[in-house]
Fold this sequence. Notes:
Elements: H1 10-36, E1 45-55, E2 72-81, E3 87-94, E4 97-98, H2 99-102, E5 107-113, E6 116-119, E7 126-128, E8 133-141, E9 153-160, E10 165-171
Antiparallel strand pairs: 1-2, 2-8, 3-4, 3-7, 3-9, 5-6, 5-8, 9-10
Amino acid sequence: MRGDKSAVSPAFLMVIIISVVFTIAIAASFWVIGVTNQHPRFERVEVIPTHCEYINNLAAVNNTVWTEEVGGWKITLELRNTGMTEVTIDNVFINSKEIDEYGHKLITVWQAYGREQVFVPWREKMTCVSGKSDSIYMVIQDGAGIMFTPGKNIEVALQTDAGNTFRKMFTLS
């Protein structure tokens, strides 16, 4: 029985172990590369210094629906998209109430592309490209049954297609 040499040599075992470890390392590296190459697409919008001013004659403001002389507030929201993807704003809320509920004759919204102000037809989506800044303007008519008065705090919330909401609070001047 001493002559039976059925054992595996240590050199051969080392070759097998090294090849198994090498195969596992390659598989793990492909998995890690696959995970890291999936770019996370997240939305992040900063609402930076907001301007709110009372205007005695809204008909004089560009791109508004008023033809008669009526007062109201012009609100400027400066947006900076610092996320990884283009942001599409599909809804605007004032004090947690959709603008639709106020009526399109009382509140209008438009967006600026560079220096050009473009009226956004009622309920059309607004976009903000990643790495860029845009402005969104809103005009709120004074009176007409809306409880907005000078000195009142209001919250403007912008909701995106992805369901994220970006809020800004300010005081009507």
